[in-house]
Specification:
The complex is a heterotrimer. By secondary structure, chain A is of the alpha+beta class. Chain A has 21 helices and 13 strands. Chain C contains 8 helices and 3 strands. The chains are: A alpha+beta, B alpha/beta, C mainly alpha.
Chain lengths: 693, 223, 186
Amino acid sequence: MNPLLGLRLAVSGGREQLLRRAFTATGVGVGAALLLLAVSAPGAALGRSDRIAWQDAATAVVSAETPDPPIEKADGALFLAVSDYSDGNPMTRAYVAALGVDPPVPPGLDRLPGPGEVAVSPAMRDLLAATPDDELDNRFPGRATLTIGRAGLAHQNELVAIVGRTPDELRGVRSVAEVHGFYRAAPQGGIRYLQAAGLGTGSVVVLLPVLVFLVIVTRVAAGQQERRLAMLRLVGATRAQTALVAATETGLAAVAGAALGWVGYELGRRVLAATVVFQGGHFWAEDVAVPGWALAAVLAGVPVLAILTTLASLRSVQVSPLAVGRRGRRPAPTAWTALPLGAGLAAQLALGLSGAGGTGQLRPILAVLQVVGVALVGPWLCLLAARAVARLSRRASALIAARRIAYDPRATFRAVGVVALAAMAATYLGSTADRPGPPAQNEDQRLRPGVVQINTGGVAAERVAPLLSAETVTERWDGSAFVVSCIELRRVRHVTCPHPTADPGGPVEPGLGAERFTVLQVYVPTDGSLAAENRVRTRTANLVPNAIINTDRDPVDYHLEQTFADFDRLGGVAALFVIILGACGLTAGVIAGLAERRRPFALLRASGVRLGELRMVVLVETAVTMLVTSAVGSALGLVAGYAATRGTDRMWTWPGLPVLAVIGAGMLAALAFAAFALPLVGLATRPDTVRYE
Amino acid sequence: MVLTGRDLHKSFGTSYALRGAGVALAKGEIVAVMGPSGSGKSTLLHCVAGILRPDSGEVHFAGRRIDDLPDRDRVQLRRTAFGFVFQFGQLVPELPAVENVALPLLLGGRRRRDALAAASGWMRRLGLDGLDRRMPGELSGGESQRVALARALVAGPAVVFADEPTGALDSVAADQVLELLVAAAHEQGTSVLLVTHEARVAAFADRTVLVRDGLDSAPVGAR
Amino acid sequence: MSIVTPVTVSYALLGLLENSTRHGYDLKQSYDRRFGGVKPVRFGQVYRALAQLTRDGLIEVVGVEAGAGPDRKRYAITDEGVTDLGAWLGEPEEPQPLLQPVLFTKVVLALLSGRPADRFLDAQRATHLAAMAELTRARRAATTTQAAILADYQLFHVEADLRWIDHTAARLTTLAEEVRDGADRS
């Protein structure tokens, strides 16, 4: 048989073949699109960190923990970046002074702003135009001549300004450092490490269901092909020839599906970029993208996967050309299938309890193992559930459903496996939460409203003199302890007097000559209005550029908290993702089950069985397996989460109500979606469409 | 007459399956409907059994007109008063034989134990001892058709409709199935409408009706 | 000597004569051409049959050619002959083994004379079906397997006839053309 004949055979066939191919193509398309989006997510999240890494250049030089920025130019520049706030929104205020003719330039700019110039982000430019000068504009002395491009911004709402200065102006400022290059990508350590680990595990947990889903879809279509191919074998086609026909047919549909998936991905990423808010801003569409090689790999790999799955499921057809339809049943799964999962969990627990802290790299591997373990034990669970239902149920439709599940538990589990995995992932993530404890600052010592806290890092009193007045409170450093009057402190913070003596690092009352000590913090009470706060900030910025200024408007540990809030949101996106997959998997399962039993069901209807009964059978099959496997999956997720947090400093909590609500809603949604396939029961089993001869 | 169909017309798209055919069934009577493929005999069965609605004509069962009943009522009728045996593929592959037989009773709300006991009884009566827990895929052709027959009879229907019940069987198995069908029908007083293209099968009936091109011809009378 | 009764031969000759008057010799030729393959006869049988038919008044001699011998006579069918032939064709045969020559003859003759062959086949089918029903009842009532097997044998053969009847019925049009073509030449 030449390839052309194979091709002709593959594209021939009537309406049923067309439907089958459309089904494959759609399923593959959905899977490919979701796969691509899942692959692009980590890049999008981390890409932001990369783009604003330049802001940490000075801090890196000063601190010993992170490696220095790369050496890019022979000439250097003096640089300082400070976190500031505008109405509770984070803002970055940077200062730069070139030390030569060819200084390093941060991403997003062609050249450094010179003295008297300011480079601003587009959002900052708008904010400056909208705010009175003494509140904001004066904080950045100079003309806003340069605009920072996307390459240097995390998102379009980011507020950044880089003030150009002369070297002399910056030399005396604390925390300024000389840099010869800027980070173009985030250095290792700190938040990025956490992010990467979380995203890595999350990606694995999301990618695997997509792959499983692709396998489900191709197997559904393959089941239908068998009859046709068995006929070919009967007529004299060799195994290779039938394999070629099957592969071509699936391959064509899968290629069409991959193309559909590409379109879906392109649409999807624009939608995601426009709707998902992460760290205070939307993504640009280009952020949510996969590298070219990954795109090619997925678009090529998905059809290949589909073809391989089809060939694998052809084995039963290849056995004998006369065996139209499977005669023999594979042996039922036994309790041994629980072994891999049990072993994996035990290993995790052991690892965690023994305190092996560096499990960051291991976590994705363990996640994979857990997923595989669940995939192996799932069919056995379904079998147990089926037997229980058969024994306990009264209704005939439940009995039929239970027998169906018990007959081929692997097929039934395939359909619901995605939802179970999703439940497991959700409870795992929900219980490990990756949250540190409550913020370090005691609630009791919160700033009073309207108070502006200025942390200078330690400057001579003369520098801040213009800020001081009768109302301000000054906290100083005498070389070994904080010095501040408790009564005064009480005016600006919620503290109790006298200073607690038990706290070794706590403040002490000022003694004689305290005015000579370096000033650490200045508290400036204001009327609480935004305008007053901004004015204080502006004045402070010009006096002490490196000062960190906070009010009760700003969250103290903003970045960290925001990171975790954002991951919650990303988690929500991932959950939606998996719900879609789960729904598609369920629907595919329902359709597959229908296709296999079309004739008996149609004849049952002819014999007077109500359509509602048949629909109930299909629904019970799907719902029971989904509930059982998801319940077990959730339990496993909790156990795995517990095992993962032992030995690390992370807390294990019961997943909050939102997580449980999401799981519940997700299962309902998947079921509702699959219920869309129920009308097909009626259509497929209409007595007059099934031939009787 | 327990079941009559008169002047039935039915077309599928542009092709006419029935052009005025009719049939009458008395209580306890076994009637064979014979004809070549495409003659419309199966369609005739479907129309009088309430599976299909004829385009025109009337069908009466037990004194009531049934062809114009809504689908739900016809389904109810089929479930309670009629039994069906088709050529193949009617057994649910996941249920063991005895549960397949018990299915009509289970769906009708009978308690599981009673339903299975009744089913088991019918299986014994049809010579299927010991096959209760076998799956349909493990039965021979003759055995599975006898299981189908048991299922058709288990609820004590007034009429059994058999559409080529022995079409896929060899002559010995076919004889067995037909013998059992006729014997059981006589025992219970059930009427049987038997559609076939084989004379040997029709010979089991009391009376044969010939159908050609959607029309019936004068029935061959019984002796 | 063949088992088939001369009755078939007589009616075959009668049917041929209905078409046109012929010599004995022509008649034999005609018979051979049409039915020779099914049931060959010798001249002697033909003349004996002709003699019997004349005695029964179903045919008559309408002319004599010069020369001696029976093959010189010219025969024609009488009105009684036509009626008798019609009755024979219209009456179905009782199912029995080796009906083939009879059925075949009847079909061809019916087509030759323009009578409705399909109705003849329908009537024959009805008779056969009734016979099958009877045989099936007998077989079901049989107490020994031997008796059942004997009944089965008859059943299968009757069924075979039925299949031939259906088969022929489906090809009547073609058959009719062929038979008429042959008629022009004989």
